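User: Hi! I'm working on a homework problem where we have to compare a predicted structure to a textbook description. Could you give me the structure for the chain below?
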Amino acid sequence: MPGSTGTTFGDLVGKLTVLRVECSKCGRFGRYPLRRLIEQRGRDGTIIDWLDELAADCPRKHAAAISDQCHARCPDLPKVL
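Assistant: Happy to help. Predicted structure tokens:
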């Protein structure tokens, strides 16, 4: 169950093997093996922190209009949490 600081990579063990990321605003997409994310960031690493770092170089990250900002997300999370 996700903790008070957000969903961790450990919360996804046994539920997903790959974490997909996509953004309809900037076109970002990718597939990240959960095993590798846990090796790099630990089981307690949070998805929100990882997504924030992943999208840090997005030109839309700090767009003036909130509706135009990068919305990188993991579309599979609602299905497994």
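For your comparison, note the following. The longest strand covers residues 18-22. The radius of gyration is 13 Å. Good luck with the assignment!
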